[in-house]
Amino acid sequence: MSHVPGMIQSIERSSAVLRLLAADPDRLRVKEVADALGLPKSTAHSILRTLEHVGFVEQDPRTARYRIGRGLLDLGTAGIDANELRGRALNWADTLAARSGEEVRLGVLRDGLVLVVHHVFRPDDSAQDLDTGVRLPAHATALGKVLLAYSATAAAPAGGLDAYTRRTVTAREPLAVELAAIRARGWGLSAEEWRPGLAGIAAPVRTSGGLVVGAIGIAGPVERLTDTRRQARPALVEQVVAAARSISREVQS
Amino acid sequence: MSHVPGMIQSIERSSAVLRLLAADPDRLRVKEVADALGLPKSTAHSILRTLEHVGFVEQDPRTARYRIGRGLLDLGTAGIDANELRGRALNWADTLAARSGEEVRLGVLRDGLVLVVHHVFRPDDSAQDLDTGVRLPAHATALGKVLLAYSATAAAPAGGLDAYTRRTVTAREPLAVELAAIRARGWGLSAEEWRPGLAGIAAPVRTSGGLVVGAIGIAGPVERLTDTRRQARPALVEQVVAAARSISREVQS
DNA sequence: CGGCACGTGCGACATTGTCGCACGCAGGCC
DNA sequence: GGCCTGCGTGCGACAATGTCGCACGTGCCG
User: What is the spatial distance, in angstroms and rounded to an integer, between the CA atom of A58 and the C1' atom of C1?
Assistant: First the structure.
């Protein structure tokens, strides 16, 4: 707790306060925080007031007690950056492409769109565009729907949802139902919702706490990815889910 | 960005820095942070140095760039406190007890132990102890193993693992395998690992981002919870998982 | 109804964070 | 290969800023 020269005292203290609040599942009173850290009441109060102002702690209006705020949760989500995710996923993405025979994309959610951070071509043929860096609509792709399903910050983008094909889900309610289904079974499907004739199957990549930080998926012709009843082929689903799980394991270090 | 009187300036600035780093998936240089916030280079550097010291940001040793640190992720986990979780779970816990015919416990991980925050008696008979507030070992109970499986902070407690029955898993490696299996299927079983003759089935409660903040489970005689091959009865598993999912939905607000 | 303890706010002091400047190093361009 | 630009880092002085003591008001318990 002592002061390390060259470090900003008030930030060190804020960190101690946050750790204290995080360690205790109950809300804490100003006095308790002050005593635990050996600070004067006013100082602790001043720090808590500021932390509340920036959204890192919340105060119960009735009991006046403080607890960790929701703002911190959103910040942690970005703990893994896209590059790190990409690095860990490289081998597994290649394996998935080889096993499934389809092209593979790895994406993260950014500003309500899917940012493709990695792209592996379909093994057999050649004429394909490199999609790395491209942004895809979230509500019309398998990758995007998986990311939306587990997104901490409010679901879909604020504006209206564009229709890309006649199968694109643009209404709020059906989309919410679909996202719930994805959460329930752990993977997502998009069949001709983005481009006619194309389908995708995707699954979430999680970090240690179970937080979803990205998604990996395959894309290809509808007839190869789905059966005659437009259901995803179980063998492919299993491959995608297995790849996502492997990457999740890699990320946890 | 401007200074609000009564607020601690350096903490406001730290918050801005963290938000900036969180918003950008790439690592940022000192100069970029300084320019974005309109601060002198030295000031930004001083703040970043302190944030790194407390573990809120990390610096790549090679490129000298900064990104959000892993310490923040752990803090967000405690965003939901035990009381709030309990409040949201009350009705679903009762329903689960009624449908399954077994007693129900709701727990959170605290200091490497399971803290029971809610307890519903078995519907039929009466002579039972109220377990609310009790702490259970994490590695020997279904609730605990589920919580460990999704725990952000390093798995089991540091010390040796106690054996309560001859079925208690005390070795690191088998336990890690078991936790991986729980992550894969989404629920956990403990059969006579804590008390002879007793078994438990539990599933995780997740918050918006998919972060596990607690677990709910049923407990009862082995012969009622498992079949002749010591496998959990699918009907009961389904009920527990459904309850956990319902509570997870409640928590996301 | 009285007393205590807590959250909150204000103001003065001096401690502390801020800012300007300079060093050393790495990368890129010529 | 050498020069030069631009960056990260560290130091020091100033004064702006955070800290602390004190006092008010309120809610709770006895």
Answer: 35
| Number of domains chain A is built from | 2
A233 and A163: one domain? Answer: yes
Q: What is the pLDDT of residue B109?
A: 82
Is B78's CB within 8 Å of A21's CB?
A: yes
* Among chain B residues, CA nearest to A42: B6
Q: Which has the higher per-residue pLDDT, B80 or B15?
A: B15
B48 and B87 fall within a common domain: no
Predicted complex ipTM = 0.61
Residue A2 in any domain: the answer is no
Nearest residue, CB atoms, A51 vs list B11, B204, B206: B11
pLDDT single digits (tens) A52-81: 888 888 888 777 788 888 777 667 555 555
Closest-approach residue (CA) in chain A for B76 = A73
Distances in whole angstroms, Cα of residue A35 to Cα of each of A20, A23, A47: 11, 16, 14
Host domain of residue B54: 9-76
Residue A95, in any domain of the structure:
yes
